[in-house]
Amino acid sequence: MPRHPFTLDEPIVVQVPCSTRRESTSGKVHDVVLNPDWSLTTPHDAAAEAVAVALGGWSSCHEFPNVVQAVRYFIALNLRREWFPLVHDYVGRWSAGVGHHFPDVYTASAFVRSYDHAAQRYNAEPTQIAILAEATEWWTATDRPETFDRWRDQLACGEVGKLWEAGIHPDSIPRIRAWAGADHAEINAEQVIELAYTDLTPSDIRLLTSDVGSVCDAADWLGGGVHRSRPWLQVTR
Prior knowledge:
The chain is α+β, with helices and mostly antiparallel strands. 40% of the residues lie in helices and 14% in strands.
């Protein structure tokens, strides 16, 4: 999925707590300015702060570049403009990175859209991510579809909302179809989800399709549990 960065129309002033101790849960509150190019302006002497950190000190505001990256990642995920790091391991287990396993794609997707996931990805504080993300009002972005009418004919049952909940932007449907060799197949939402998050290659998908009869049947087999064992595919239910 191509990146579609969320941009700011104007600088945003945000009040944030500032602390010089990692274990602190509060601190002196001051303004920071989040600029349209995603740079930050703080009231600190950045050079002096960098020296202090290099000498072993710590400042919560010095961590804000990581926070900004985490916020941009969080927003891209919630607008479905960043591919979700999900894998369907087997029936009843979806993985969202090391150590994070869920019973279904929707629960896994909800975790990936969380502040905690972005915080772990960029080594940032979830509370700081939340403060900046909420200030941007990302949910008002025009590329977040409020209606799915123009995509409904892409799926057999028009269940585009299921794709959104699974972390897939409807704009990706043609790409997923082409990748899996399903350009003209009548395919439903669950099958698109399985094709989107499998770890099989396109050639593996085509091999599986030739064995089971159609790309839709192949997607159903993926939902039942397919494990790759080169040079052959071992298919298990």
